[in-house]
């Protein structure tokens, strides 16, 4: 395999075989060739990773995407306005769906690729693999950190800040790391069902709750007040880019789908799961965030589960506990699985229940969890952690790199028909767009974090202060 032996494979022909008996035989041979290049082989001995059906992949995809990002979109809409925020949600959802298709198609043509880093090796060699691998790890470590922050906020809200926030963060790290240490995605599958409906019901409770209030829970309860709802807003460049990065990252985690595809029984069925997942996510993001922003305006909390007042805040966080934990668990799992495969690929330990197998796997999950915990306590405000993740990591991983993957496999389009040339230069546009979001979003988010520290919105690192109070 390419990533294992240091030689790059040519892309495989995945076009349908001709009809007829000869065609059926050719299709069977082609399927066998594709299977022989897969990272995890189907086996009855040792650990069988290849046991995820496409319906189960759908719910795993849903829980990866429909996670902590949805809790920060209403705040971003306050910055961008209802129209700008809605267009941003729709635009980025379509863009991230398309780039997920590019990644999945590339995975099908190059089945030896387990992660985006392996794809980087195929198109750019060892140095590109290492660059993408670092981005991949940083991205999902930060996402795990956002899960730790979200879970610690829930514990603070439910307990009325009965303990130091650092201790709640540590408890969150232990819970998430324990769940992430389950080895196969099939065995995590039942958690994703519970986790998805946990977050869904919690947000639905908040959406219904805010519509029953005469005025937002965080607004002055007597006298006149400004709701702060705008159809069109005029943010500064820094504020607008931070909000844009927040919405972008809410559907940008599609590179986490690749390890799931590697564990599917039939990886060629990934598009069924992808299209169902992204369609549902778009509908839920738009409806939930627009209703919450319309009724709360500038008084929306961050995360948004606290927007309907103290009682509903506790109810929603109580319901969301499992979902918040599962979100962090999935992010930590895919990051640890990347390291695990990189270390043991090509050895008997990858799919055998050996001491080396277990020590490597648990070492990956625990060490990444520790790093995520440290980062979560250092940048302990939710929306900035989400925005920083989107700008630094997901802009190149979800936009720029998929553009490069397409250009690698279809380089001949540069000299093809007018339509082929248009496709070719559109994918160059993706490369540049990702670079712009990365640079502009990173600058804006760092500036916003600095201003938040200066104004006291963010306390010191490893602070015991309550992080479940309302923040704008």
UniProtKB/TrEMBL annotation:
Top-level taxonomic group: Eukaryota
InterPro entries: AA_transpt_TM
Keyword check for Disulfide bond: no
Protein keywords: Membrane, Transmembrane, Transmembrane helix
Transmembrane segments: 60-80, 86-106, 127-154, 166-183, 190-212, 232-261, 273-295, 315-334, 355-375, 381-407, 428-449
Membrane topology: Multi-pass membrane protein
Compartments (UniProt record): Membrane
One Gene Ontology molecular-function label: L-amino acid transmembrane transporter activity
Keyword Transmembrane helix in record: yes
Assigned GO CC terms: membrane
Region feature (Disordered): 1-28
Domain Amino acid transporter transmembrane: start-end pairs: 51-446
Gene3D superfamilies found in the cross-reference section: Amino acid/polyamine transporter I
Pfam families referenced in this protein's UniProt entry, alphabetically: Aa_trans (PF01490)
PANTHER family to which the protein is assigned, alphabetical: AMINO ACID TRANSPORTER, AMINO ACID TRANSPORTER (EUROFUNG)
Homology family: Belongs to the amino acid/polyamine transporter 2 family.
UniProt-recorded name of the protein: Amino acid transporter transmembrane domain-containing protein
């Amino acid at each position: 395999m390419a990533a294992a032996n240091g030689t790059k494979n040519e892309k495989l022909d995945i076009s349908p075989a001709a009809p007829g008996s000869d065609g059926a035989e050719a299709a069977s041979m082609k399927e066998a060739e594709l299977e022989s290049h897969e990272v995890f082989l189907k086996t009855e001995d040792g650990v069988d990773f290849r046991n995820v059906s496409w319906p189960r992949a759908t719910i795993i995809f849903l829980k990866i995407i429909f996670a902590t990002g949805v809790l920060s979109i209403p705040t971003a809409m306050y910055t961008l306005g209802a129209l700008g925020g809605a267009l941003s949600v729709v635009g980025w959802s379509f863009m991230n769906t398309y780039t997920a298709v590019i990644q999945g198609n590339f995975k099908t043509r190059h089945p030896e690729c387990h992660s985006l880093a392996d794809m980087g090796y195929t198109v750019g060699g060892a140095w590109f693999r290492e660059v993408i691998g670092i981005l991949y790890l940083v991205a999902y470590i930060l996402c795990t950190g956002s899960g730790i922050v979200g879970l610690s906020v829930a514990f603070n809200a439910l307990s009325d800040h009965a303990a130091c926030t650092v201790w709640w963060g540590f408890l969150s790290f232990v819970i998430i790391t324990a769940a992430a240490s389950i080895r196969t995605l099939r065995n995590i599958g039942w958690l994703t069902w519970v986790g998805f409906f946990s977050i869904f019901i919690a947000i639905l409770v908040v959406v219904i709750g805010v519509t029953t209030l005469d005025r937002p829970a965080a607004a002055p309860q007597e006298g006149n007040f400004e709701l702060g709802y705008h159809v069109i807003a005029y943010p500064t460049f820094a504020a607008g880019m931070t909000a844009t990065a927040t919405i972008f990252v809410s559907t940008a985690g599609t590179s986490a789908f690749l390890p799931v595809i590697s564990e599917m029984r039939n990886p060629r069925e990934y598009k069924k799961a992808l299209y169902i997942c992204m369609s549902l996510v778009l509908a839920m993001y738009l409806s939930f965030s627009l209703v919450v922003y319309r009724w709360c305006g500038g008084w929306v909390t961050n995360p948004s589960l606290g927007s309907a007042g103290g009682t509903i805040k506790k109810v929603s966080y109580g319901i969301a506990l499992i979902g918040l934990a599962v979100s962090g668990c999935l992010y930590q799992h895919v990051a640890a699985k990347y390291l695990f495969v990189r270390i043991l690929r090509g050895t008997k330990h990858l799919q055998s229940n050996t001491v080396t197998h277990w020590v490597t796997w648990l070492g990956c999950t625990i060490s990444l969890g520790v790093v995520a915990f440290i980062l979560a306590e250092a940048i302990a405000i939710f929306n900035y952690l989400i925005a920083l993740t989107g700008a630094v990591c997901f802009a190149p991983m979800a936009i720029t790199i998929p553009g490069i993957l397409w250009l690698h496999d279809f380089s001949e389009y540069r000299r093809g028909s007018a339509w082929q040339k248009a496709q070719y230069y559109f994918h160059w546009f993706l490369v540049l767009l990702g670079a712009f979001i990365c640079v502009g979003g990173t600058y804006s988010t760092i500036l916003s974090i600095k201003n938040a520290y200066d104004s006291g919105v963010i306390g010191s690192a490893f602070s015991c202060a309550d992080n479940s109070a309302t923040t704008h």
